[in-house]
Amino acid sequence: MAGNSSNGVLERLRQLEGSVERGAAKQERAERSHGRLQQLQATVRQLRAARDRLRSAVSTGVAGDMQELLVQLGSGSGQRPGRDELAAAVLREKLAPLRGFAQVYRLTGISGELRDSSTMSFCIHTAYEGTYLDSYQLDMRLQQPCKLLRHNLPACIPLQQAAGELLQRDLPAFLEAVHGMLNAYASRRYQLQKMQEHCDWTSEIRKNMAYNLLRFHYPVGDGETEQDIKVKLVYEDVNSCLPTGVTITCTGAAEEGMQEKLERHRHFLLSQPLHRALESIKEQEELL
Question: DSSP string covering 94-114, please?
């Protein structure tokens, strides 16, 4: 009877010992899991910080900064990309949205084509009242800092001024500004061409290279005499195809009737395209 009791006590002790060992092993596994979780969380925080730093480096486009950053971050023995490879990767990332941008802008007068790994060629189309006019080419290097390479824009377009203000910080805004200036320039020239074609009663036409300063004469009947009207148009806004200032002089302008007539002419010239304004003036003179 005593032997059986001893065996039962020993068996109970073995069970308690096994339970304690299993509990200790379970606690050890839990502690290891908790430590591993903390390590993983710390790694995630480090990777997120590295991602943000790489994004910042990509936005500046400086390959050297990214190369130094990768050296600091990477501890493995794998081969790291060189400066040229990093620069090419940055350019590819920057060109991806530009390709979509160029496709959208095709509808508004600007189209783009990638020439090589670092050069984009933009074609800027001009039009006036549904009539397509000239197209101009503008090539630029897109690696930072962006640089204008070649173009066939008229010398009167303040391209360098627009580049200095917008090119490095906002390429779409730069292209929109250039397009606006070119379209206004082509529209002013188109209006003058139409005036020369259809208003043969005008004379002594003078213009400057930018077509933003025009002078011409036209005759106006004043009873039994004919007055010579001298007109000066000024376009101070580089994006405007209508004049901002009109000066009209006439030898007989002191007369009240002539003053009223010239004021109507001034209104036509300020509010309508040049060739249509002159047609309105002629129609009014014929009615009078």
Answer: HHHHHHHHHHHHGGGTEEEEE
DSSP 109-129: TEEEEE-SSSEEEEEEEEEET
Q: Which residue has the higher pLDDT, 6 or 118?
A: 118
Spatial distance between the Cα atoms of 119 and 143, rounded to a whole number of angstroms: 8
Q: What six digits make up the tokens of 64?
A: 């050297």
The runs of H, that is alpha helices, within the chain are 2-60, 63-73, 83-105, 159-162, 171-198, 256-271, 274-287
Q: Is residue 288 scored above 50 in pLDDT?
A: no
* CB under 8 A, 24+ apart: contacts of 268-274: 269/231, 269/233, 269/243, 270/242, 270/243, 270/246, 271/242, 272/242, 273/129, 273/191, 273/194, 273/241, 273/242, 274/188, 274/191, 274/192, 274/194, 274/195, 274/214, 274/233
% of the chain exceeding 90 in pLDDT: 35
- pLDDT range class, residue 226, cuts 50, 70, 90: confident
pTM for the model stands at: 0.65
Instruction: Please name which of 62, 153, 59 lies closest in space to residue 97, comparing C-alpha atoms.
Output: 59
